[in-house]
Amino acid sequence: MTTVSSSAPDRVGESPTRASLARRGSVFLYRHAKVRLALLLSAPLFWLGLVYIAALVALLITAFWTVDSFTGEIIVDWNITNITKVLGDALYHAVTLRTVGAAVLVTLIDIAIALPIAFLMAKVASPGVQRALVIAILMPLWASYLVKAYAWRSLLSQDGVIDWMLGPIGGESPGYGFEGSVLTLAYLWLPFVILPIFTALERVPDSLLDASSDLGAKTGRTFRHIVFPLIVPGIIAGSIFSFSLTLGDYIAVRIVGGATQMLGTLVYANVGVANNLPLAAAVSLIPLGIIFIYLGVVRRTGALNNL
Amino acid sequence: MRLSLPSKFLLWGATAVTLAFIYVPILVVVLNSFSTSKTLSWPPPGFTTEWWGKAFTNAGALSAISTSLVVAAVSTVIALLLGTALSFALHRFDFFGKSTVNLLVVLPIALPGIVTGIALNNAFRTMLDIQLGWFTIIVAHATFCVVTVFNNVFARLRRVGTSLEEASSDLGAGIWTTFRLVTFPQIRSALFAGGLLSFALSFDEIIVTTFTAGSGVQTLPIFILDNMFRPNQAPIVAVVAVVMILIAIVPIYIAQRLTTTDNR
């Protein structure tokens, strides 16, 4: 048993007092597991608790305050104006619906794209090809989010790649707007959806698939009745990412969304231009609430263990 | 699995299309950084390295790169310390509220970036009255980087177990000696991989950064975002974007190699 702190050297032969001090510390810590635990936990918990949990609680509290419309200063004046405004205003209803709609669309697109490639990676490809594909999927996962959104800005632009590709067959780029945002967001979160589905598929025993085909089931039937039910937790795990990330996004929407408003852009506008932090805090509670509901529903399926 | 020929064909086709979907946009950015067109019209009318030269003498881009490097380095050091301590605590001990602590680590990346961003922005500005700047960016980045270090080190601890350490203390080594000679060498590459991932994560982060950076400090992603909507800056932005892909991808690639060779 040991601790992380290695500050005190205990090389035998160094000055005897230092060595014995380190020795005594070592013996003390060895005997007192609780002290070891406390030493390990205190700094991280202090940081995460103070920085993060306190900030989340503060956000909740701020939503009940107001902003002085003349000075722009925040006034500690407990009321539920912001909450009722966010819950009652037609604008917020429309934007919430649009954002949730985008999140659902993005999730469905990603699952549809992810299933074939994940299946091929897990069950069809040779080990070498499988490794290469995993790396090919992982690399862009870590390529900058911003760069990827920027890439779609140039793809979707007038005279951009999509116009150039679709032009000959009479199509054109959807341009900057809701469709562009959904496409870009689906692109951004795709690796997050592929990987959990791939992991789930890998866990499906090959023998089950063989048994199914031995019993005469065709590929499609095996997939529907054997594979799919087994990988539902993986699909849900992936959907958590695409759903939650879409709800909270505002940069991609700003880059390729044109004038499209989503919950994220509303929050950002209230923090920046309108300088109304309490209202922004109230708006940000909507995606937070939706995600907690989603997570609560999903928890029952056991998908959270697949994250 | 045995597949009928058409379904095999379909699967490989879908995979090829997906890979194209993933890589074409990135390739387009790379090509655009060499395009002679200032508006980045496609196909590029010609190729030039002019923008690459200009980007490397662009004061804003250079200072943004160094800002991002410093922020990523400092947050990674903090994340390494906190993440390692946490992974030891959660691996070696059973205590009340363990699962809550586990959730707490994941929360900063599980919640949407905008919630994390506005929560920290609000905490710094209205609650603590701290001016947004270097300090607030680093605090924010370190907070969501902890989880990458934690994941790597925790996975390693779970794999190597504690038998070697027990052997070490049975042979009379104290806690420090055991850590230095037994535990640390076992987790070294996991620390390195976790650190690299956390560095890349911080280097790329934009959403939380826009809420915690204030107006004085410009990281590379903020530089790109600010210049993206300006006319005539498009080629420079494309160059910086490619630089950003390279700076992020190289550490990731090394980290991947490290963890996969260890696993074999």
How would you describe this structure to a colleague?
The complex is a heterodimer of chains A (307) and B (264). In chain A, 74% of the residues lie in helices and 1% in strands. Chain A has 13 helices and two strands. In chain A, strand 1 and strand 2 (74-75) form a beta hairpin. Chain A has 307 residues and is mainly α. Chain A folds into two domains: 16-62, no CATH class; 81-306, Orthogonal Bundle (MetI-like fold), CATH 1.10.3720. The two termini of chain A are 29 Å apart. Chain B has 264 residues and is an all-alpha fold. Chain B has a domain at 67-221 and 250-263: MetI-like fold (Orthogonal Bundle). Chain B has eleven helices and no strands. Chains A and B meet through helix 1, helix 2, helix 4, helix 5 and helix 6 of A and helix 1, helix 3, helix 4, helix 5 and helix 6 of B.
List the helices and strands and how they pair.
The complex is a heterodimer of chains A (307) and B (264).
Chain A: H1 16-31, H2 33-62, E1 66-67, E2 74-75, H3 81-88, H4 90-124, H5 127-142, H6 145-156, H7 161-166, H8 178-203, H9 206-214, H10 219-248, H11 251-256, H12 263-271, H13 277-299
Antiparallel strand pairs in A: 1-2
Helix pairs in contact in A: 3-4, 4-8, 4-10, 5-8, 6-8, 8-10, 9-10, 10-13, 12-13
Chain B: H1 5-32, H2 50-55, H3 59-92, H4 98-110, H5 113-127, H6 134-160, H7 163-170, H8 175-204, H9 207-212, H10 220-228, H11 234-263
Helix pairs in contact in B: 3-6, 3-8, 3-10, 4-6, 6-8, 7-8, 8-11, 10-11
Key phrases:
heterodimer; A: 307 residues; mainly alpha; MetI-like fold; 2 domains; two-stranded antiparallel ribbon; 13 helices; globular; disordered N terminus; B: 264 residues; 11 helices; 78% helix
